[in-house]
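Deliverable D4.2, example record:
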Amino acid sequence: MQLINKISELSKKDLLSIRIVLDRSGSMSGSQKVTMEALNTYLKELKKERGINASLTLSTFDSISIDIPISRLSLKTLKSFPADLLKPRGGTPLFDAIGLAIHDLENVIETSDDDKVLVIVTDGLENASKEYTFENISSKIKEKEEAGWLIIYLGADHDTFKQSNSLNFNRERSMKYSKKDSVDTFRAVTRTTLDYSKGMKSKDIKFTQQERIYSDKPSVDKFEDYFQADAHVKAYRKLEEEK
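Output generated by the structure prediction step:
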């Protein structure tokens, strides 16, 4: 995979800096395609917003290495995420990945604390960090939440809220999601990112009940019970019946 690390010339006016931290550990195996589809949906929907001025950095992490294949690239320049970006292997140095991302993002001096977005995507618990500790990360998350960063935690296949709460991620902006529903999950992240880009304070941003259910659909029947009149549910049931 060719690394994308060119720092584009970006206007400093209202520059939104987005950092995605993507788990690449072995347990992500089997979800590469839907994860990349979700990331590209996020990118595509952001690019549709007229006047948005943003740069995006994406880091991937496992116990073998933490890499930054996309670094501060303008949304206008970034056409899509490479298909081979996610190659699962190794363990989960979650603290190290978050710590590095926070360090990098807080040193983006052309962006104020009211214009910084940090999105964590993981399917497991910390088990391999060497540089950062629980205390380091929980303290930093609290500090940056209070400073005005929009910090999103997306967790699959583990006790999402137990881990996110312990690390001081705000529960309103933490999401338990199913990997099969990754695209809907990132649609919710798109909505929160756009709200933030339009001036809404991070403390006022939260995932809706509908977004949470769409991001972790338990079954067609139970899903329909929540939204009897929702056309999306009817379309979803039809697709299930056609399988």
